[in-house]
Structure formats: structure tokens, C-alpha cells
């Protein structure tokens, strides 16, 4: 089975981001195919590398990066949703007059159109 995970909630404040991470990890451990994790709406905050959880809290952002590196999965972020929420790369930050952006280089910009094409090659899409 081929899956896409669709994350729409922020990394902290709800359980959905950590639940989606646990689900992704379980899929991969069971040797299912995870085509990508797509972050949309407030889920784009998962790509903000400047978020800093308390020392005793689970660092979901670093965990997504570890999962990406270990299993070679794609972490896609809706570019327009991210831009509206201030999650921007260095180039956009400079264009807006800021010194640097907050978009993690381990994530990739992706559009809803691109996601639509990717969905056609999957068996399941799971939203958190």
C-alpha cells in the first residue's frame, strides 16, 4: 500500500502532528510505502526551524527530519499556506526586508496541484 500523510495542525497545541508522526513511523516499520508527508494550513509550522520546544518536550520538527533522513521520505509544505503564516525561506525573507527566513531546508515547497498528481499514484491519503 502506498500512503500520503496530510498534516493540517501545528506541531504543538494539539496531538495531531505527533500522532501523524507516530503513524508515519508505524507505516515505515511495517514496510508500507510512504510517498510523502504534506503539511497544509497550520501544519506548515512543522517546517519552522525556529520553533523551540521546552527541553522536556518531544521535538516533533527534529523528529520529522530524522524520519526523512532514515527512510528517504519527502516532507512537502504548501508554499502559499506557509507564506500566509510567515514560514518563509531566506530568499523571500530578504525580499520582504528581513535578515533571514525560518523555513527548514529539510522540507520542500510543494503546491496543491503537484499534490493532486501525487495522490493519483497512492492507495490512501490520511489526514491529521
* Spatial sequence of strands, sheet with the most strands: 4-3-2-1-5
Label the structural class. Answer: alpha/beta
Radius of gyration: 14 Å
Provide the number of structural domains.
Answer: 1
| Gross morphology | globular
| CATH level 4 superfamily | DsrEFH-like
Percentage of residues in strands: 15-25%
- What is the CATH topology assignment? Hypothetical Protein Ychn, Chain: A
The SSE string, one letter per element, is EHEHEHHEHE
CATH C-level label = Alpha Beta
Helix content range:
25-40%
The beta-strand count equals 5
Gap between N and C termini, in Å? 19 Å
- Number of H- or I-type helical stretches: 5
Describe the protein in words.
The chain is α/β, with parallel strands linked by helices. It has five helices and five strands. It has a single domain, classed as 3-Layer(aba) Sandwich (Hypothetical Protein Ychn, Chain: A), CATH 3.40.1260.10. Strand 1, helix 1 and strand 2 form a beta-alpha-beta unit.
Amino acid at each position: 500500500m502506498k500512503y500520503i500523510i496530510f498534516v493540517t495542525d501545528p506541531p504543538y497545541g494539539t496531538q495531531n502532528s505527533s500522532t501523524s508522526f507516530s503513524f508515519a513511523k508505524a507505516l515505515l516499520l511495517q514496510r508500507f510505502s510512504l510517498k510523502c508527508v504534506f503539511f497544509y494550513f497550520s501544519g506548515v509550522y512543522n517546517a519552522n526551524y525556529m520553533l523551540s520546544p521546552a527541553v522536556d518536550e518531544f521535538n516533533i520538527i527534529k523528529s520529522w527530519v530524522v524520519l526523512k533522513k532514515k527512510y528517504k521520505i519527502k516532507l512537502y509544505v504548501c508554499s502559499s499556506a506557509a507564506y500566509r503564516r510567515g514560514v518563509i525561506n531566506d530568499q523571500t525573507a530578504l525580499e520582504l526586508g528581513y535578515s533571514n527566513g525560518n523555513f527548514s531546508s529539510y522540507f520542500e515547497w510543494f503546491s496543491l496541484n503537484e499534490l493532486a498528481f501525487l495522490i493519483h499514484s497512492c492507495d490512501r491519503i490520511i489526514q491529521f
